[in-house]
From TrEMBL:
Residues passing through the membrane, by range: 12-29, 41-62, 74-90, 102-124, 144-162, 168-185
Membrane topology: Multi-pass membrane protein
Protein's UniProt name: Inner membrane-spanning protein YciB
Function: Plays a role in cell envelope biogenesis, maintenance of cell envelope integrity and membrane homeostasis.
Domain of life: Bacteria
Family: Belongs to the YciB family.
Cited InterPro entries: YciB (IPR006008)
Broad class of the protein's primary localization: membrane
Localization of this protein: Cell inner membrane
């Protein structure tokens, strides 16, 4: 189910807007400490608290406009609520920083489970975007499974050994750039295993 058509700019704004907003708010508030109910909260925690409803609203609007959310979007929102909520509730930024790790581990494990069953779950999610032969889907799924596990390890290394500011920039730009670069490196696979549409 692909959902209703939507202006690509609107779709991008709804998907990336909360992330960009998080970055801007963090840069603005990172040095500040807020006392709420007798408890001190660093700017990162306050920004995280604001990010959760913004993410929910943006995802809700996207769902309203398209009538559809893919599984990755749903899982991401659920983990944002869980780990972001834990960070705010416990006043501990580690939980939110672990969120990308959990996302990539879950995606990697899901794709890996499909591979063990001789299936490419990736094909179910992306077949409409990239028509590939079955062998191509299996190769891409194996590579992406390993890549997701690598990103999970990398996120853990960054947030555990570097500053919060470094992690925010890594999460906003580094992870996005890494995924973009990964698919760029698969150009040969798309060429060799792509399915030409006779209607084109």
């Amino acid at each position: 189910m692909a959902g209703k058509p939507i202006n690509p700019l609107v779709k991008t704004a709804l998907e990336m807007g909360p992330v960009v907003g998080f970055l801007v708010a963090y840069i603005w508030l990172k040095e500040r400490v807020f006392t709420i109910g007798g408890t001190d909260y660093e700017g990162f925690i306050v920004v995280t608290a604001g990010f959760i409803p913004v993410m929910l609203i943006a995802t809700g609007i996207l769902w309203k406009l398209t009538g559809h959310l893919n599984r990755m979007q749903v899982v991401t929102v659920v983990l944002v609520v869980i780990f972001g909520g834990l960070s705010v509730w416990l006043n501990d930024d580690r939980f939110f920083k672990m969120k990308p790790t959990m996302i990539y581990l879950l995606f990697g494990a899901t794709l890996g489970w499909g591979l063990l069953r001789g299936q490419s779950y990736l094909a179910y999610v992306m077949e409409g975007l990239m028509p590939l032969k079955q062998e191509g889907w299996m190769i891409l799924t194996r590579r992406l499974t390993g890549f997701f596990f690598l990103l999970a390890v990398l996120n853990e290394a960054i947030w555990r050994t570097m500053s919060t500011e470094t992690w925010v920039y890594f999460k906003t730009f580094g992870l996005t750039a890494a995924i973009f670069a990964f698919f760029l490196t698969q150009a040969r696979l798309f060429r060799d295993y792509g399915i030409d549409d006779p209607a084109d």
